Amino acid sequence: MTKTALLALGCPEFPVQTSTAIYLAYKLQKHGITPVFAGNKSALLLVKVADPERHYYDGKMMNLDITIGALSTGKIDFDFCFVFVHSDSGIAYLASIHALSKGKMVAIVFGKCAEELTEQCKNICEHVLAEPVIHNPMPLKEQIDGVSTWLHV
User: Fold this and answer.
1) Strand (E) or helix (H) holding 6
2) What is the pLDDT of residues 100-133, one digit of tens each?
3) What is the number of alpha carbons within 13 Å of residue 15 lying toward its C-beta?
4) Which of the residue ranges 6-15, 40-49, 56-65 would you say has the lowest mean pLDDT?
C-alpha cells in the first residue's frame, strides 16, 4: 500500500511556503510517498499554478478545514503530516492535526516569528524544520534534503 503525506499549508502570506511545499512533494514522491496538499483556496491555487502539469500534486488537494474534519471522524489519515507554520494559526493547525492523526508529525516553521514559533512547535511534535526565511527557500530546502534520514522512508 502506498504511503501518504499530508502537506498542510497556511495562508500563503510568505512566498517561501509554496516553493518549499512543492519541493517537499517532489522529495516525497522520489521515496514512493504520495503527497496530499491541504490549505485554503489561495494556497492551493498557488500550487496548481506553479505545477500546471501536475507533476507534484497529481490532483490530490483538499480544503484544510475539511481535512481536519475528516481526520476527526477517522475517514482519513496519513503516514506523515508536514504542517507549515508561520503564525499562531499554524500552531493551532499543528496541534489539531497532531491530536487527530497517527502519522509522523513534522512542523516546517518559517517567517518573521520563526524563533518563537519553533519553541511552541517543539512542545507539540518531535520533528521541527525551522528557518526565519520569507523569500529564500534554500535554507528549508537543505533541511528537507535531510528529512529522509530520520523519517526512515
Assistant:
1) strand 3-8
2) 999 999 999 999 999 999 999 999 998 999 999 9
3) 5
4) 56-65
* Domain range for 101: 3-151
Please name which of 43, 36, 151 lies closest in space to residue 87, comparing C-alpha atoms: 43
- For residue 63, what is the enclosing H or E element? strand 61-63
**73 C-beta neighbours (distance < 10 Å), count:** 8
Q: Which DSSP letter does residue 32 get?
A: T
The answer to whether 31 and 148 are in contact (CB under 8 A) is: yes
* 124 neighbors 83 (Cβ within 8 angstroms): no
CATH of the domain at 25: 3.40.50.10160
Grid coordinates belonging to 22: 512543492
- How many whole angstroms from its chain centre is CA 99? 16
| Number of domains present in the structure of the chain | 1
- Alpha-carbon span 124 to 112, nearest angstrom: 20
Contacts of 35 (CB under 8 A, 6+ apart): 4, 5, 7, 24, 25, 28, 29, 56, 57, 60
Region label for 59, one of left (φ > 0), alpha (ψ between -120 and 50) or beta (otherwise) = left
